[in-house]
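Section: Multi-chain targets

For targets with more than one molecule, the full set of components is provided together so that the structure can be written out for the assembly as a whole rather than chain by chain. Components appear in the order listed by the source. The example entry contains two components.
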Amino acid sequence: MPFGNTHNNFKLNYKVEDEFPDLSKHNNHMAKVLTKEMYGKIRDRQTPSGYTLDDVIQTGVDNPGHPFIMTVGCVAGDEESYEVFKDLLDPIISDRHGGYKPTDKHVTDLNFENLKGGDDLDPAYVLSSRVRTGRSIKGFTLPPHNSRGERRGIEKLSVEALTSLDGEFKGKYYPLKSMTDAEQDQLINDHFLFDKPVSPLLTCAGMARDWPDGRGIMHNDNKTFLVWVNEEDHLRVISMQQGGNMREVFKRFCVGLKKIEEIFKKHGHGFMWNEHLGYILTCPSNLGTGLRGGVHVKLPKLSVHAKFDEILSRLRLQKRGTGGVDTASVGGVFDISNADRLGSSEVAQVQLVVDGVKLMVEMEKKLEKGEAIDSMIPAQK
Amino acid sequence: MANSFTRMISGRNTAVILASVGAGSLTSGYLLCDSTADAAERRKLYPPSADFPDLRKHNNCMAAALTPTIYGHLRDKTTSNEWTVDQCIQTGVDNPGHPFIKTVGMVAGDEESYELFAELFDPVIKDRHNGYDPRTMKHPTDLDSSKITSGMFDERYVLSSRVRTGRSIRGLSLPPACSRSERREVERVCVTALSGLKGDLAGRYYSLGDMSDREQQHLIDEHLLFDKPVSPLLTASGMARDWPDARGIWHNNEKNFLLWLNEEDHTRIISMEKGGNMKRVFERFCRGLKQVEHLIQERGWEFMWNDRLGYILTCPSNLGTGLRAGVHVRLPMLNRDPRFKKILENLRLQKRGTGGVDKAATGDTVDISNHDRLGKSEVELVQLVVDGVNYLIECEKRLERGQDIKIPSPIPQFRK
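Its structure, encoded as tokens over all components, is:
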């Protein structure tokens, strides 16, 4: 049950003008798309599990704008949200994902062998490499909406699946409830664990309810393969390691994901996926591959170059601070990752990261020698 | 729709009529989208035992009272606004315990919550209000300020005096549950009524959305404005949704009579001034409250009240009078004395920092107010604060002179 807005039928007694949110000071994708007319048209709908339009947009109403990044401003409560509220979500998806149309098809490619190179990023600059994605389990509603019983059901199923993995994926599950503060701090410092949810972007969407009930982390013994359970999505799957061997990271990612998917399917709960939107996740920004492949890379000179943002944009890459999406960079070290999620495959997106980071490291080296980099600036990918 | 109905009708039947209107549109809602079958499916798949919260690490009144049996009885019920017990308890599940104060851990979404979920609310009310039993006891209301005696404090110690309460507008959902239009209706009803205040109570309204940052900071510094809601106790209950839509503050020209709109309650009414004249503060409080009530009644609205629970507010801790009468008082020696806590307890007083409920009490100046809200009238509680603070000042003076102090005997809880 979502909190706050379940009494949708009762609200329909009130006029649209009285219920329509004040978005005059807002700057997010939802606020750009939602008009009073659209609100009036779709506010009486509900998904089969009872998720409503007000539920979808609450986080965007409560959070007018983010300083570093244009936020989406809405979330899905279940797989059906993307159908029932397509009037709102299709234009947002198009805006967020480079003009993706309601008729477009998304290609999934998790064959790591299709990646070219990626094993030779200079470790003097590339400190660590990481690929993550999310998966939602069919038959359950999503984190903004699910009840405690559902969340525990997701956890139970996930623990069964994950603790049956073997080989390099063999590991252990740590429920957040019974982790000590010391264990938890260590995992956060290792960049393994997810934050206690304090970001209002997440809390206003209701996904932090009942924390830490049903939440946990599984990681393999080497700490190179991790799964977060019940944070912003049912599952977040992460492959990571120190240094610049993105190829190895991606291989482990693909192999691990396939194994996990097989186990879930055997239990009768595959992943949410369709051929238009790819993998279905809570935030529309993560549709498609849900993949964020990135590195922590030292670019002190390039990052203050006038053309840095332009270069990133052309390479279809995105910068973040080393603490994750809501943070700033420290000491010239940036988190550089693919900007796209929907409309291109996993392999294609990781390829962009590999090629783009390689180029930027070359540029950094040139700048260190006092040379110009204008000739190296790439065309729009 | 609520407007036209409640303007025509006054009296306690309003809520009943609204409820039946709500029920009617509920039926048509189901015809629009048949999710009843799905809802029944999900309830079968997830019985109450699957959803019962894990409260083993929790320390609040809700966690102490909620059992799987009670949860099983209440989980699938909804008020006529479709508010559920899960929504009532969410804040208590998300906030296991507060370091300085035992929190209640649940809120009401509407007037009906206190009835429909009485099986949980009643023991929580009993726990929080010293054994007050809503099933058998009656709450007295008394706003006759002339009854207060010795209400002028020594101003070498008392820096400021303040009385606040809350009032809810009958027929509209409470802040955790209200829709945007309901919240805007609360604002409209109150602002219209307040514009009718005259004399020393005449003033103006500042909408939070239209206030400049500078105006806002100025009002916070003068202890007039409410915080942007960051306390997880408030945000987890949903009362901060859509901020700052339909929130605002009204104050008179003297800045000693104020109303907050749509913070934790529909309205918070505050009378305050520098210095120690608590009697005058309470006199203005009662007068202002009565005039506001009269002004909303002229338009067919009324406050939520019944004789079991007194004034109905969002948090069960504020039922009854909803009244917190307090002072900022300098008690440097007493504040460091190990007996202070017991003295306060016996006087039925509570200590807070000068920044409000979520801040620690440090240094020489503390906020002292009544601990209780329900089971005693407004006049009784204010007199209790007056007598109690006078006693504390006496203790401070004695300690200054190197004399000993006594812990007073405990004040009885309820009238015999």
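The first strand of chain A starts at residue 126 and ends at 135.
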